[in-house]
Structure prediction request, 310 residues.
Amino acid sequence: MAVCRVCRQRAAVRLKYANLALCKQHFIEYFERRIFRTIKKYNMMREGDRVAVAVSGGKDSVALLYALSSLREKLKVELMGITIDLGIKGYSERCVQIAVRHYEHLSIPYEVVDVREYGFTVDELKGLRRSPCSACGVIKRYLLNKVSREMGARVLATGHNLDDFLAVVLQAYIRGDLRLLSKLKPSLPPIDGLIAKVKPLVETPEKDALLYVLLRGLEYMEEECPYAVGATSIEYKALLNQLEDKHPGIKLQMLRAFLDRIQPLITYEEPPLAICEKCGEPSSGSICQFCRLLELSRTKLAKNRCRKLN
Ligand code: Q46
Ligand code: ZN
Ligand code: ZN
Prediction:
């Protein structure tokens, strides 16, 4: 029987990458301590910060919310929650309900942004871009930045874990996307109307986030988004896990090699951001991606309505 390295009681988990067995209580402490260390290491938060936590209702963001809630006094930060209702049928409603139940349980002030307020849902955007995920990504980036800034947050924390981060690195590497590779950082400072963005789970393997919510008995959205089916990121993650099974610790090694050795060699000059002519938000062109999407969706919805009338 494996025993906890700290208290010698029966172990609840065995972390191969750290050659470590821990009981429930000591795993929870280990998990939260690693997040605290990650926040300090990458200067993610400062004392007195107002931190908006983006909670989708999935395991990663729920784990992040609870870990930050446990750490908030030690970090001396104020937390607030932000959830986007993407309007995905049979999925979004439950995600929002879970997030709201957690905010209320933890007494964390929050905001739920419903994309219907802008006149569309992610379901209705199908076909406008290569995949609904591409439109969804634009919406999430735009609204999370805008609303958390309006809520008075200095920092936006998201639940991207080690596996998520490495899957994007691989994807960007395969496409030779130097711009993305240069921007992939655990902590991005505020710039030109964009609030600071941090990923406190960047050193946390996805499986650990799952163990944390399971061991703490936290409710989370177990089902995947219907549009996640067939996503290449799932294949990249499976590949990374195959490597990890054979070589425990390789994922963390890849992260460190990328951030410490490879990324500093990538030089990519990002042009300064402009202001969107329509909404006044930061934008890489004269009209931001979100406003362009809005235009497209209005045209598509109007066409659909005409078709129904004819
Ligand atoms: S929510 Fe949105 Fe994801 Fe669903 S539509 Fe794609 S991007 S899969 S994280
Ligand atoms: Zn123990
Ligand atoms: Zn705009």
